[in-house]
Design a protein that fits this description.
Number of helices: 1
Low-confidence stretches: none
Order of helices and strands: H
Number of strands: 0
Mean pLDDT: 92
Largest sheet: none
Distance between the termini: 66 Å
Radius of gyration: 20 Å
Strand content: under 5%
Length: 44
Amino acid sequence: MADHKHGEMDTSVQEKTFDGFMSMTTKASIGIIIFLIFLALVAI
């Protein structure tokens, strides 16, 4: 079993993946909100 040393793991790939996920989630949320506002305005 390999010795584990705290703080030596390269997390750059995980950070890029998380940043991409948060960006996609934010854009999707904004798009859904705009779509719902559009539906509310059309239904009146």
